[in-house]
UniProtKB/TrEMBL annotation:
UniProt xrefs under InterPro entries: PepSY-ass_TM (IPR005625)
Top-level division of the source organism's lineage: Bacteria
UniProt key word Transmembrane helix: yes
Entry keywords, A to Z: Membrane, Transmembrane, Transmembrane helix
Protein name in UniProt: PepSY domain-containing protein
Transmembrane region(s): 12-34, 146-169, 190-214, 329-353
Database matches in Pfam families: PepSY_TM
């Protein structure tokens, strides 16, 4: 089977899925801002003072959540956005051993953490639904596997497209768009130029998406394992406050930027603080952690990306390359445009194929008239 035929049938098979993943990915580049625009009560405020290391709001938010009826046995994850305004958090309800985990709740607290101002189940509001569609096709772990392995096939689709296009002669001719040619040729040129213009970046975005969707592939490539909370022996005594633990973390990693505060429901499990350290490219989901015993205030363990090997450093770039967060606004806009490219490629490729099939059918059914001898 030739390269062109492989490209054709992969495109016809995966084009719609590629378009859906691309469009949802484009929407997710600005998903926090879009969600805030749809829910103004939970909006952040870049001009207001941001709670930080010594702020009492983290302990107050924990108390407010429990007073609002959230099970104390559940886990809280507070996001430190670096801005004022509403405080976003994730709440993970407890589940019996061996049972499926109930869906997490997204909770927003008032700026002083004294009130719960918004609660929504993950997947139950627009932007989280788009996220689940993008990552898992709304089908959980099975859907994530489908997305991941389909991404491998999409990489083959992109590679065969480049091979089929690669000029054998004039580059100027290969890159030309013939505006006055027949519609079928214009479709081919548009498909060709869209693929050439976006191909490399699409391969990067698709390849990093495969790594994110398939943890087994990531482990094989980078020799990394998911971050697991260390197990502590059962203890007695009072639980230290989040604010107290933050002082310990600040002394331990003074150049770290606080990003997430995780508070487990089990008192024998440590606080977990997620930090961005110099050299880590992702601002929202960095890869360094500090675990602090909730009774003794001792640092249990530190996972610092700077102390990892080459695989750890490469893995730190996967997510920011995928979501366009490695740069400022121009890079994020480029990421949106790249997400639109699969739809353009799918539409132009399908229409070109349909016209070719139609022309072939006409040639087959049209009788040939022979002249007189």
């Amino acid at each position: 089977m030739g390269v062109r035929r492989v490209h054709l049938w992969l495109g016809l098979s995966l084009g719609l899925l590629f378009a859906v993943i691309g469009l949802t990915g484009s929407a997710l580049v600005f998903y926090v801002g879009i969600d805030e625009a749809l829910h103004s009560e939970a909006r952040s405020d870049a001009l207001a003072p941001a709670p930080g290391w010594s702020s009492p709001v983290w302990d107050r938010a924990l108390a407010t959540g429990r007073a609002a009826g959230f099970d104390p046995a559940g886990k809280w994850s507070f996001e430190v956005t670096g801005e004022g305004g509403a405080i976003p958090a994730r709440y993970y309800p407890p589940s019996p051993p061996g049972a499926a985990h109930p869906p997490r709740q997204m909770v927003w607290f008032s700026p002083d953490a004294g009130r719960v101002i918004r609660v929504a189940p993950w997947g139950g509001y627009l932007m989280s639904w788009i996220y689940e569609l993008h990552m898992q096709l709304l089908a959980g772990d099975v859907g994530m596997q489908i997305v991941g392995w389909s991404g491998v096939a999409m990489l083959v689709l992109l590679a065969t497209g480049v091979i089929a296009w690669w000029p054998r002669g004039s580059w100027a001719k290969a890159l030309a768009f013939k505006r006055r040619s027949a519609p079928i040729r214009r479709l081919r040129d548009l498909h060709k130029l869209a693929g050439v213009g976006s191909g490399l970046l699409l391969m990067i975005v698709t390849g990093t998406g495969v790594i994110l969707a398939l943890p087994s592939v990531k482990t094989a490539l980078f020799a990394t394992a998911p971050v697991a909370d260390p197990t502590l022996p059962g203890g007695t005594g009072p639980i230290i406050s989040v604010r107290h633990a933050l002082r310990v973390v600040k002394r331990t990693v003074p150049d770290g930027r606080l990003v997430f505060i995780d508070v487990p429901g089990d008192a024998d499990r440590p606080y977990r603080f997620r930090l961005q350290v110099p050299g880590d490219p992702h601002q929202r989901f960095p890869g360094s952690y500090v675990f602090v015993d909730r009774r003794t205030a001792n640092v249990v363990t530190i996972q610092d990306v700077r102390q990892g090997g080459t695989g750890t450093r490469l893995n730190a770039w996967v997510r920011p390359l995928h979501d366009g967060s490695i740069g400022g606004l121009p890079i994020r806009i480029l990421a949106v445009l790249i997400g639109l490219a699969p739809t353009l490629l799918a539409v132009t490729g399908f229409l070109h194929w349909r016209r070719r099939v139609g022309h072939a059918a006409i040639r087959t059914t049209t009788p040939r008239h022979r002249g007189r001898r």
